[in-house]
Amino acid sequence: MVRGEGSLLWDSQGKRYIDLFAGIAVSCLGYGHPTWVRAVQQQSAQLAHLSNYYFTEPNIRLAAALCHRTGFDRAFFCNSGTEAIEALLKLARRHFFSKGEDSRHTVVAFERAFHGRTMGALAATGQGAYRAGFGPLGPVVHVPYGDLAAVADKLTPEVAAVLVEPVQGEGGVRPAPPGFLAGLRALTRERGALLLADEIQTGVGRTGAFLACEHSNVEADAVALAKGLGGGFPIGAMLCREALAGALPPGSHGSTYGGNPLGSAAALAVLEVVEQEGLVARAAQLGGKLASRLSEMVKEHPRVVESQRGLGLLQALVLRPEVDGRGLLVALREAGILVTLAGGEALRFSPALNIPEALLDEALAKVDQVLRGIG
Ligand SMILES: *Cc1c(COP(=O)(O)O)cnc(C)c1O
């Protein structure tokens, strides 16, 4: 690929593709959005990096904007999703350490969860394919996603936190069953553990709410953001409540690049465009259309697809087990459509939040054609 514009990409042969995956739910404004480009150009000319020895205005403005938008009180910045998860895990451990409860060191996470590839985040990831060969990892206890009774069973006094994705992304685009997140909130409160939300894939409007936890009226104790936050610039963030802020005093955690003014300016541009163009509401509305179009395809191609699932502009067609998913990706790419597979069996649609509706229609007509061809 050599060039992108909006939700279109061109390869080195000049072939045009409609992008329905946005660099794994990252390029939420599409490619080359003028506000984002201007912000990155201006900030790189003004001051790109400094380290956390000094405050910079873009970073403070970003922390304030995120806290204002979400109701959290504090922000820590890093450069990727997995680093944001490490920050959550370290926050949880050190919180209980500073309260004299250092026997609370375990994390409850979920089967099929994906939290990243550094050792702590990998320990919480609940998929063998990512973990194989890197053990021993932990201590993390994995239970089935959606199973509150299993969580209750594992929530012993050794558990520091429950870590959850409000929609499992890499695990196959599985939205939390009704009542699950609220149940986790109630259980963790009752047992004195923290609730940590991994909104790296779902955050910044993707599911039709700024944070996907808002759909369930659930407020986690801390949340991880990345992917869409930078709109293509690598940045991660952990947001937490004031009560937890003291758990990571100066020097206890940090990052050389974290919070750099260039990344902060890129993320501020994302938040500005999301606000100005009403992209959270658009993700809800266009996501609804996408979902109904995909469920029509389930009826039209029953031999290829089994079901549709998702939330907002994070949607999937679940392929029948006998369908060759990788082969289907290639056929779609040849037809000029870029999507991804999640969890092996889910054809994932995570387009830019501002993809023009006509372009989405054109892409879905092609997806329909390709499915007809193999069905
Ligand atoms: C992508 C992702 C991560 C890891 O983010 P990286 O930036 O690849 O480190 C963690 N959790 C979820 C839910 C993700 O989708």
Produce the secondary structure layout.
Layout: E1 3-5, E2 8-10, E3 16-19, H1 22-25, H2 34-46, H3 57-70, E4 74-78, H4 81-98, E5 106-110, H5 119-124, H6 128-131, E6 140-143, H7 148-154, E7 159-164, E8 167-168, E9 174-175, H8 180-191, E10 194-198, E11 222-225, E12 236-240, H9 242-245, H10 261-276, H11 279-300, E13 305-311, E14 314-319, H12 325-334, E15 337-338, E16 340-342, E17 346-349, H13 357-374
Parallel strand pairs: 3-15, 5-6, 5-7, 7-10, 10-11
Antiparallel strand pairs: 1-2, 2-3, 4-12, 8-9, 11-12, 13-14, 14-17, 16-17
Bound molecules: pyridoxal-5'-phosphate.
What does this entry look like structurally?
This protein is 39% helix and 19% strand. The chain contains 13 helices and 17 strands. It has helices at residues 22-25, 34-46, 57-70, 81-98, 119-124, 128-131, 148-154, 180-191, 242-245, 261-276, 279-300, 325-334, 357-374, and strands spanning 3-5, 8-10, 16-19, 74-78, 106-110, 140-143, 159-164, 167-168, 174-175, 194-198, 222-225, 236-240, 305-311, 314-319, 337-338, 340-342, 346-349. A hairpin with a 3-residue loop joins strand 16 (340-342) and strand 17. Helix 2 packs antiparallel against helix 10 (261-276) and helix 11 runs parallel beside helix 13 (357-374). It is globular and about 65 Å long. Residues 80-82, 85, 114-116, 165, 169-170, 198, 200-201, 226-227 line the site of pyridoxal-5'-phosphate (PLP).
